[in-house]
Design a protein that fits this description.
7-stranded mixed β-sheet, about 325 residues, Dna Ligase, domain 1, D-amino Acid Aminotransferase, Chain A, domain 1, globular, single chain, Rossmann fold
Length: about 325
């Protein structure tokens, strides 16, 4: 008997549109599988199931069920395709865990930790994983631009601590431009992470649980046409993404080793995609995305296909793993 799967998409952040694109890719890939997929839009003003005629049916938040034509529909599993809050930061997953509804992501605590860039970096550092020098700011604190430059140098990156898809990120070359970049980042989050610029090759590494084992996918090198891998480069084709990356076997083995170590040190489960900068052949960890993009332009699907895993297999496997 085919099981009903809720694909949650949307969210409460700037990544709503991208999440809905990802969710639709998952929905279309699962239509011809052993599952019956359903599109669930989780938005600030409503939680609704959107049927094939684009009609909306409200979700009952007591048990995450929905009434359709007078019949109650429940779900065997939730496929999490929400980038940003509340899907990637663990909030929604805590709710699913409270009502005993399986989902495809890691437990809510691991999701919250990895979504918080500061906390994520603090966990991986003791394992010997190299990272950029960083400076932290919280909204309302005094902005001492000289202290920032003294610690991280120029150019540097100003990032929201809790955000994705490069929203709110700036690469800053001059001290007098720091305040404007910080104000831009504060529009996305009340916590700021300012990092030194690592001048090296950018690598992206997907890791999934596949057939009961942790599987490191082929490495992608990102060569952005822009100044860095920003929103435009990610979603408007302004980058060259080479999968598998053209690097030596020795370097590739080291990147895979560090990526797997980061995954395990954070006690991750399900999908993840980690970003690294290669400096003197040593990978420096930037961040981990636990709900990576799943659109046709996204890196994780590209890496899975390079590993011989179709989108149907990729998404179905995540559901089977969660149901176990």
């Amino acid at each position: 008997m085919r099981q009903h799967i809720a694909i949650v998409m949307g969210g409460y952040s700037s990544e709503v549109a991208i999440s809905i694109q990802s969710g639709n890719v998952v929905y279309n890939a699962l239509k011809n599988t052993n599952f019956i997929p359903h599109k669930i839009h989780i938005l600030k003003d409503k939680w609704v199931l959107v049927d094939e005629n684009d009609k909306e049916h409200p979700i009952n938040k007591d048990d995450f069920s929905v009434l359709i034509a007078g019949k109650k529909l429940t779900f065997s599993c939730v496929f999490n395709a929400i980038h940003g809050t509340p899907g990637e930061d663990g909030k929604l997953l805590a709710y699913f865990e409270l009502i005993n509804l399986p989902h495809t992501s890691a437990p809510f605590y691991q999701m919250a930790v990895t979504f918080n860039k500061r906390d994520c970096l603090s966990i991986v550092k003791p394992y010997g994983i190299q990272t950029a020098v960083s400076y932290y700011l919280d909204f309302g604190e005094k902005i001492d631009t000289k202290a920032i430059v003294k610690k991280v140098g120029l150019p540097c990156f100003v990032k929201p601590n809790n955000a994705g898809s490069s929203y709110g990120i700036s690469k800053v070359y001059k001290e007098e431009l720091l305040v404007a970049a910080i104000e831009k980042a504060y529009k996305e989050d009340s916590q700021i992470l300012i990092e030194e610029f690592l001048d090296g090759r950018e690598m992206s590494v997907g890791i999934i649980e596949y057939q009961g084992e942790i599987k490191v996918l082929p490495i992608t090198e990102i060569i952005s046409e822009n100044d860095f891998f920003d929103y435009d480069a990610k979603y408007h084709g302004k980058s060259n993404e080479v999968t598998p990356a053209v690097i030596t076997d020795k370097v590739a083995a080291r990147v895979r080793e560090v990526a797997k170590l980061a995954y395990k040190s954070l006690n991750m489960r399900g999908f993840s995609r980690s970003e690294f900068i290669l400096i003197n052949e040593e990978p420096h960890f930037l961040e981990m995305n636990t709900v990576p993009g799943l659109t046709n332009a996204s890196l994780l699907p590209q890496q899975a296909l390079a590993a011989g895993i179709s989108l149907e297999e990729l998404f179905s496997n995540a559901i089977y793993a969660s149901l176990k």
